[in-house]
Amino acid sequence: MSIGRKMYRTIDLIRSTMIVVFFSVIIVSCFTDVLFRYLPWLRSLGWTEEILRYLNVWIVLLGASVAVKRKAHLPLLYFLRFFRPEHRGWIGRVVNVTILVFLAIFVVYGTHKTLENIQQEVQAFSLSIAWFYMAIPVGSLYMFIDFLLILIYGEHPFYEAPMEE
């Protein structure tokens, strides 16, 4: 197995693990809050709504990068059919380069915004809000890597389609 494949599999495993952990925290904390809210001797947890919102942003951005890898985003095939077949390839590459430019901007400015707000804390408890702002540059970086691989190879080299029955 090549070094590039090992590196990609490692970052893909980290991404997948983060999605599972964050989703599990959402499920457990939401269930606990509902339970606490409706049992008369317990009080609702004050911090769950805020954490659920922030973890949801993480899941959406990490999930969007998984969708890039799996070709699950809305394709441009509908619009590409209006162009000649010989032009469709370079139009797709121009679109991918444009997406890469925007993702690079998100990584740079998202990192800047994260560092700018490192002293600010979440209202519910003592945790820097930078941990949640970091979802933007991290999710964008994952998508950047996947779009770059698609641009270089024409399709994602590490995507293994699920087996059909």
Structure description:
The protein is mostly helical and 165 residues long. The chain has helices at 3-38, 48-69, 77-80, 85-116, 130-133, 135-153. It has one domain (3-153). Helix content is 71%, strand content 0%. The chain is elongated and about 70 Å long. The mean pLDDT is 87.
Overview in brief:
By secondary structure, this protein is mainly α. The protein has one domain.
How many beta-strand elements?
0
Topology pattern, helix = H, strand = E: HHHHHH
Please report the distance between the alpha carbons of the first and last residues: 28 Å
Radius of gyration: 20 Å
Determine the strand fraction and express it as a percent band: under 5%
pLDDT below 50 for ≥5 consecutive residues: which ranges? Answer: none
Tell me the quaternary state.
Answer: single chain
Helix content: over 70%
Query: Overall pLDDT, averaged?
Result: 87
Main sheet: strands, sense, barrel? none
- Work out the helix count: 6
Shape by Cα distribution: elongated
Q: Please identify the structural class as seen in this structure.
A: mainly alpha
- The tally of structural domains comes to 1
